[in-house]
Amino acid sequence: MKQLLIIMGLLCSATGLAQPLKQQYINKINQICSNADIIEFEQKDDYAEIEYRCNGKLFEVGISPTLEVLFIESETEIEPHTRSIIDKKISKKYEGWKLDEFTRVSMGDTSFYKAELWKDGIEENVYFTLDGKYFKPKNLVVNEPWTQQYLSGSVAYRKAPYNFLTPTSSYEMPEVLKEISGIAPMNTTTLYAVQDESGAVFKYDLKKESISGLHRFTDVGDFEDVTTDGATLYALRSDGTIFSFNVANFDGKITQTVLQLNSLNAEGIFYNQHDRMLYIVCKDQPIDGESWQRNIYKIDPKGTGMAKLALTIDIKEIVRKIKVDYPLATSSNLQFNPSAIAIHPLTNEMYILSASNKLLAIYKNSKLSAVYPLPAETFYKPEGLAFMPDGSLYISSEGIKKGYLNGQVFFFKPKPGSINKN
Questions:
Q1: DSSP category for residue 157
Q2: Secondary structure (DSSP) of 295-354
């Protein structure tokens, strides 16, 4: 059986706990199957993954640091009638894809089938209920206080320009974009997207809900975001290198610009049509700054890479505003580590996204005006922002790297009357 791809969402709630010893995990497996033949043990950051045979059948199990069984994935045979229903769905929607195998996944009182598909080197996992219907798992990683129930009752949240509790539409990314880290609009029906580990920009067709092409600009690396001025595309690597090329008439020529920044870990890039500058936001504190500071820089894309400071984010200010607007946030460990930046095309407000604690901060005229937590049930790891010309907003969220939750893109139309250009 392939390496396990199913992880119960609750595993992340155990982050920070001390990991049990290997033997304690093994003892837990022996409670499940007294004659288990352990094949492989792998310690992850937040759980242990154990592959074993029990009575001749192959299993893989995830166990949390509290020794809770998070999931069990096993070989399976599907009843003929249900298999026929699933096969018809696959042949209709995934024409030309090769079926590798089926497995059955159990998480608590929920069970479903996983179908592993392959085409042109791209892997796709498709999930079905036990009676053959499509199964669309939601994010169960609720390790933040920002639940839909809590946010729906927040007075401050109801003032948000978008209904972050209910996306206008959502898109589940293919396996190759499970770690989607940045997005930018190509046009009204296509998004550019990059993922963490591949030096390629993918074109994602929103109508067909599939990849329609790609541009490879380099080899492997840690790629965080992408933006475009319409003709030139800019892809940002975490070390502060920008790869740019003519995406309208791609001729294979790639330009690399190494940014001169006073911060490490560049995470977000955005081309602002208003001043024709590139804006860069960094995840880490400035080299000669304070731990509660995060810098935003701007550069002339036609210049030498010399960066000017555009804004310094004060994390303490963000935390104070959160605690006033959302009293449930009593933790002193709230973090704001920027993962994306975008500037509203109509209001010129600066939107800064933080995957840490799932927060969206808005700055108007360089002043913090609002902070909106994103519901934990919907957003696993929000990493990308993109605006359409009418002010509609896309937010991308990474999936669980070794889990069942794929990368996702959520689309939000602005609330009526919410856009104030003044």
A1: G
A2: EEEEE-TTS-SB-EEEEEEEHHHHHHHHHHH-TT---S-----EEEEEE-TTT-PEEEEE
Rounded to whole angstroms, how far apart are CA atoms 219 and 283? 23
Structure tokens at 235: 């892809």
For 323, phi and psi rounded to 5 degrees?
-70, -25
Which of 380, 347, 374, 390 is CA-nearest to residue 163?
A: 374
Check: pTM over 0.85? Answer yes or no.
no
Burial string for 238-265 (b: 16+ CB within 10 Å, else e) reads bebbbbbbebeeeeeebeebebebebeb
Tens-digit pLDDT profile for residues 166-220: 999 999 898 889 899 999 999 999 999 999 888 999 999 999 998 999 899 998 7
CA distance 6 to 176: 16
Q: Phi and psi at residue 290, in whole multiples of 5°?
A: -95, 160
pLDDT at 367 over 70: yes
36's tokens: 């288990």
- What's the full length of the chain, in residues? 422
Residue given tokens 């940014």 in the structure block: 259
Residue-wise pLDDT for 368-402, tens only, equals 999 999 998 889 899 999 999 999 999 999 987 65
Q: Which amino acid is located at 96 in the chain?
A: G
Structural domains of the chain sorted by starting position, each given as residue range(s) with its CATH number in brackets: 9-128 (3.10.450.360), 148-412 (2.40.128.630)
What amino acid is encoded at 417 in this protein?
G
Q: How confident is the model at residue 1 (pLDDT cuts 50, 70, 90)?
A: very low
Tell me 9's DSSP state.
G
Beta-bridged to residue 359, according to DSSP, are 354, 373
CA 335, CA 352: separation in Å to the nearest integer?
13
Q: Using alpha carbons only, what angle is made at residue 228 by residues 347 and 335, rounded to the nearest 5 degrees?
A: 65
C-alpha distances (whole Å) from 57 to each of 1, 85, 182 are 11, 25, 41
